[in-house]
Amino acid sequence: xxxxxxxxxxxxxxxxxxxxxxxxxxxxxxxxxxxxxxxxxxxxxxxxxxxxxxxxxxxxxxxxxxxxxxxxxxxxxxxxxxxxxxxxxxxxxxxxxxxxxxxxxxxxxxxxxxxxxxxx
Length: 120
What we know:
Elements (H helix, E strand, L loop, with lengths): L14 E3 L5 H10 L3 E8 L2 E7 L6 E6 L10 E6 L2 H10 L11 E5 L5 E6 L1
Parallel strand pairs: 1-4, 5-7
Antiparallel strand pairs: 2-3, 3-4, 6-7
């Protein structure tokens, strides 16, 4: 058990479910953005695709029968050291980024799940 200095048990976020309507399309989209494919398997009728952003300890899960969220209902943030560099790389991979505002820029996956890149 990990305990922080305050005596509270330390917890680390490892996975977030991102609801999608088409698992293969989502897998292709996130792979094109550079997310590492950790697994793609069917277990007991559930298809689980685990993808991890470069440098992240937390993965996303897309698949079938992974929860009750409707496609496009997720919102996640990614912190990057160099926002301009990250924007250029993601645009190079086909992401449609919005305008940069206050060191932040948003984009969506094909289902409308929202992502926010945060510089710094």
